């Protein structure tokens, strides 16, 4: 059973998401919050698998709540998915850098919502990686940021750098395995080691680092 907490300041939005999620035999909504403070409290109390987090809420917003959850070692198994009304948003970018597993636009189709919750609960892929890559590339371009290689990358082997680049490009473990002629298990092991060496909790942060370090080169650098 995938346990979900809903965090949104609009009662009707929470009710709509709850009706979709609770209709599934493998998903259960275990709590609701109307602000970031309550979302963090419920995450600590209930230890859900996934928190669907509105990015704009009164008081502590979704970005601050995400930082608190992803920065708490006791909540290492809790995954945060950002809910937004826009697919390109400064708050969303910040949330991904803070450790969110991905994001969903609020008017997403029910099947996409369910798929996203299940994928993040497994901890093995991003939500809509192509959209997440576009988000990161667009904000990197908009800010005119130059690549900023992280010293953490020095700990990676050449193979791990290759795998990280493919993760940044949005490939799944199976796709990476096919591209590099590896077994899926070996690809998964490489990704796990990369996350450990980089000190990140999620593939989304690997994607962000791949772009910000210049490992992945969006069109603005061409």
TrEMBL record:
UniProt xrefs under Pfam families: GerE, Response_reg
PROSITE patterns registered for this protein in UniProt: HTH_LUXR_2 (PS50043), RESPONSE_REGULATORY (PS50110)
Gene Ontology MF: a single term: DNA binding
In-chain residues carrying the UniProt-annotated modification 4-aspartylphosphate: 54
Record key words, sorted: DNA-binding, Phosphoprotein, Transcription, Transcription regulation
Boundaries of every HTH luxR-type domain copy: 149-214
One GO process term, biological-process aspect: regulation of DNA-templated transcription
Keyword Transcription attributed: yes
CDD domains: LuxR_C_like, REC_NarL-like
InterPro entries linked to this entry: CheY-like_superfamily, NreC/VraR/RcsB-like_REC, Sig_transdc_resp-reg_C-effctor, Sig_transdc_resp-reg_receiver, Tscrpt_reg_LuxR_C, WalR-like
Residue stretches making up the Response regulatory domain: 3-121
Annotated protein name in UniProt: LuxR family transcriptional regulator
Organism: Streptomyces fradiae ATCC 10745 = DSM 40063
